[in-house]
Amino acid sequence: MLMTFLRVPLVALAMAAMCLAAQAGTLKDIRKVSVAGDGSVSKDVVALTGQQLKRSARSTRRPVALPKVAMEVHLANEIRGAGAQAGRNSAEVTVLLRGGSGAPVESQRFTVNSFMTGKAADRALANAISQRIAVTYSLAPVRAVSAGSRGSAKAYRKQQPAARQKTAPQAAEQASGPAADPVIIPSEAALTVKPRVRKPKTEASAAKTPAPCVVTATTSCN
User: Which segment of the chain is annotated as a signal peptide (predicted)?
Assistant: First the structure.
C-alpha cells in the first residue's frame, strides 16, 4: 500500500523533470527579431507581425541567464479563402534561431490559420502568427493591434492644418486689439425731425404761480 502511495508523487516528479528538460532545450533569450515574407504574403501582415513580436521580445524577462539568440521569421504561401471558405486564411511560418556567432541553433515550421474577412483579415492573420510564436518560445503576451489605431492617427494629422488655420485669424485679432466703434450715418428722416425740449420744472412752476401783489399809489391789491 505504501509503495502504491509513493509511486504517484514519483511519477509526477518524473514528468515535471522531463518537461523542464524539454523547456530548457528550447527556452532562449531572444534579443533581436526580424520578419520577412515571400510574394504571396501581404506587406501589412509582415509589418504587423514584426511590430508585435519585437514588442513582445522587449517585454520578456527571464528569471535566469539564458543563451542570447536572434529570431528570424519567414512567412510564405499565404492563402485567402474564397467562396464557401471566405474568411479562412492561412500562412506557413518558419522560425529560425541564430546564436551569437550567427550559426543556426533551432528551427521550427508550422502553419497558422485565422478567420476574418474584409480589411481586418491581414490584422487577424498577423495577430494569430505573433501569438503562436510567442506561446511557442515563451515570450510575453502579444498585444493585438486595435482596429482604430491607424485611423485615429490619420484623422489627428488631418485635423492639425485646419486647427492651425482657425487659430491664425484669432491671433491676428488679438494682436490688433479691440475693433473701432462703427460709424453711424443718420438717415434724411432723422435729420428733419425736430427735437422736443422739455422746460425745466422750475420755469413751469414759476409761470403758473402768480406773482405777489405789491400795493403802490396807483395799484390796489383788493
Answer: 1-24
